[in-house]
Amino acid sequence: MGAPRHPFVVHVADLLRRPGSSRQEVVEAPLEQLSVIDTSMPDRSTVVVDVRLESVNEGIVATGAVAAPWEGLCRRCLEPVEGTLRSEVLEVFEAEPVEGETLLLDGDRIDLEPVAREAILLGLPMAPLCREDCQGLCPTCGADRNDAGCDCAPPTADPRWAGLEGLTFDE
Ligand SMILES: [Zn+2]
Ligand SMILES: [Zn+2]
């Protein structure tokens, strides 16, 4: 089905003929590497776009999710970590798209690749942890405190960083 070079391009003539109709579309294909800070989706990873396509007002609405593997470094101990991200998507395709808001409905085709790329960039964890209670590295000697303790005195709190203490990251 479809041109193998563009696995994310989906034909929607059937939906356009029948406004109000919908169907599920699952595209599973590789994408080139995407990165945010030190976390990335490895090059040519298989990405899964699983969306419901609905025909509305001369356009197509895609709702569903994008899933892809990621790898990065634990923000506390710097050990490699990996996982699978899942991002919800809601996109509208229309013949005359609004810049930054909707995507191009190109005749009877839509391209889910930009949807996948944006969802992955939004879903990559920017500060992953190898585990919730990772003890991190000793700031004095650099020892991995998950493996063994060290004899360094506990660090004195640096007031410059005090404001960051309560900071949490969405993952
Ligand atoms: Zn860690
Ligand atoms: Zn130490």
Given the C-alpha coordinates, what overall shape results?
A: elongated
- N-end to C-end Cα span: 35 Å
Biggest β-sheet: count, sense, barrel?
A: 5 strands, mixed
What is the strand arrangement across the widest sheet? 2-5-6-7-8
Radius of gyration: 22 Å
> Helix- and strand-based class?
mainly beta
Give the ligands present: zinc ion
| Element-by-element helix/strand order | EHEEEEEEEEH
Number of strands: 9
Q: Residue-averaged pLDDT, rounded?
A: 90
By DSSP (H or I, 4+ residues per run), the number of helices equals 2
Low-confidence stretches: none
Strand content: 35-45%
Helix content: under 10%
Describe the structure.
The protein has 171 residues and is mainly beta. The chain is 9% helix and 39% strand. It is built from two helices and nine strands, in the order E-H-E-E-E-E-E-E-E-E-H. It has helices at 13-17, 113-123, and strands spanning 9-11, 22-31, 34-36, 39-41, 45-56, 59-73, 80-94, 103-104, 109-111. It has a five-stranded mixed beta sheet with strand order 2-5-6-7-8, with helices on one face. Strands 1-9 form a two-stranded antiparallel sheet. The protein has a two-stranded antiparallel ribbon with strand order 3-4. Strand 6 (59-73) and strand 7 (80-94) form a beta hairpin. It is elongated and about 75 Å long. The two termini are 35 Å apart. The mean pLDDT is 90. The structure holds zinc ion (2 copies). Residues 138, 140-141, 143, 150, 152 line the site of one zinc ion.
